[in-house]
Here is the input.
Amino acid sequence: MIHTLLIANRGEIACRIIRTARELGIRTIAVCSDADRNALHVREADQAVHIGPSPARESYLVGERIIAAAQATGADAIHPGYGFLSENAEFAQAVIDAGLIWVGPNPASITAMGLKDAAKALMADAGVPVTPGYMGENQEADFLAAQADEIGYPVLIKAVAGGGGKGMRKVESAADFADALASCQREAAASFGNAHVLIEKYIQRPRHIEVQVFGDRHGNIVHLFERDCSLQRRHQKVIEEAPAPGMDEETRTQLCAAAVRAAKAVDYVGAGTIEFIADASEGLRADRIWFMEMNTRLQVEHPVTEEITGVDLVEWQLRVAAGEPLPLSQEELFIDGWAMEARLYAEDPAKGFLPSIGRLDLFQPGFGGRVDTGVEQGGEVSPFYDPMIAKLIARGDDREDAREALHGMISESAVWPVKTNAAFLVRALEHPEFVAGEVDTGLIERHAEVLTATPAPSAAALSRAAMAMVPKSSHSGFRLNAPDRRMATFLLDGERVDVHLHGPGEATPAPSTLVAENGSVWRLEVFRVDGAPGGGAADGAILSPMPGRIIAVSVKAGDAVVRGQKLLTLEAMKMEHTLTAPFDGIVAELNAAAGAQVQVEALLVRIEREEA
Here is the structure.
C-alpha cells in the first residue's frame, strides 16, 4: 500500500481524497497557491507545500513544482484528482519517470482518449457506436462551415482536447457558425493549449449518460453501472443521478458492455468514465446511444456511483495504483437504491449565472445526506478557481426518495453573502419534467425563465424564518435600552432573501409580516436579493462582475445597440462570460480593449438611452 500520498489538486476533491487516505492510514501532503494558504484542504492534510502564486497556471499547473514537492516530502505517490493535470499524459509520465506512483491510468491511455477525434476513430474500430460528424485535421473556418452545412444544423462544435463543457458551442444556423467557432477555439486554446475542434450532429432530444469503468494491472476491467448527467446548463452538469431514469436491464447490459469494450481497447487501468449521448425521443434504446468521449480520471459526480454500489472509488484508485487487483468482480457489483447529486455553486442566476466571490460569512449545508466540500464558514470563494462551494448528495430507496432528500438538503442550506444557485437547484428538482424523469440536456434552456424566477416567499416560509430568528426569551441576545433587531439571509421557498426582524414596539415600513412569540409581536421585513441579468445595470453602466481578462469587444463608442446585444466577452474563473446591453441605446463610453485585465466593478461600457 502507498505510505505517503501527495494530492496535486485543491478544494473539494483534495479533501475527498484526504478523507479516504486517512481511513487507509496513508499520510497526505497538500499543495497550495497563495490564495489557498489557509484553505480547508491545507489544514486537513498532514503536511502542506506552497507551490506558487494564485493563478493556476503559475501553481497547480506547474508539474515540476508538484513533483519536487513530492520528492521533498518523501511522498511515494501522486493523486491528481480531477481537472488541472489529471488528464495530462506528459505529467503522468514525468511522475512515473521520477520514480513515483501515478494514481491514474497509463499515460498511453490518456493520450489515446485525450483527443476526441482520435478517440472516436479508436472506438469505432473497437465496435463502440459513435455519433456522426467531422473529426479531421482541416481546421480552416470555411471548410468547417461547409462540413457543418453537410452534417445539417443544429451542430455541436467541440474542442478535441476539451472537457467540463469548455470549448463547446451549439450552433443553430449557418449565420451563427463563424462567431461560435471563434469563441470555441479561443476558449479551447486558453483552457487546453489546443484550438482544434470537431463538428458533431446535435441530437435534438439528447440525454447524457455515462458509465463508470475501472481496471487494474492484472487485466481485469469492470463497470459500476451508469449515471445520468442530462440536467445541464451551458454543457456544465447541474444535477446528476444514478441509475439513469427509464433505463431497462437490456439497454443497461448493452450500454455497460460497450463501455467495457471501450476501456479494454486502451488497456485501461484505474477509474474512468465512458460518456455517451442518447437520443431519448423514443425512450432509451441501445441503438440510439453513441460514444462521446472518455474521461481518464475520477469524475466530479463519482459520489452517486459510490452511494448505489457501496464502493469507495478513491480507495479502489489507491489500491489499484499500488498493484492490487480490483476488490470486487463484476458479478459482485450491483445497484442498491438511487442517488442524486447537486453542485452548489457560488454564482448568481439573476445575473446570468455570473460567479460570485468573497468571504463565506455563513455556510451551513443542509442535513440528511452527504456533503463534499473544500470550504467552510469563514473561508473565501476565490476568483482564481472553479466557483463550486459543495456537492450535496442524497440517497434513497428509489428515485423519488432521493429527490425529496436532496430537495430538503438544498432548501435547508444557508450561504451568505456570497450568492449561490441554491434556489435554481430547488426549482429544477421541483420541475414536473424532472420529477417525472423526463430529463434531457435542453430542459434548463427551455424553462430558464421559470427556473430563475424570484417569486415572493410564502407566509409559512416567512414564519419559519422569523421563528428561527426570534430569541427564546425577550432579552436573549440583545443590549439593554437598544431596539430588538436581527438580520439574516435565508433561502425561502427557493428564493434567497434578506430578512430584517424588528422587536416589539419598533415601527417598520409596511408591508411586513407579524409573528407572535412569548406574548410579543415581532415584525418581519423581507428584501429580495437579486440583480439585473447579463451584467447590465439599470443606469446603463456595465461593470466588471469579477476580476478577469477582456478577450473580445463587439462594439465601439457611438454604436447603436439593442437590449440583450453582446457588448464584450470577459474571461474569468475558467469560463467566458458575455456582457450585454441592458436596454436599447448608444455606446456613450467604452473602457475595454481585447487583452486588458480588469478588476471587479471596473466601468467597462456605459449605455445611454436614445432620446425620443
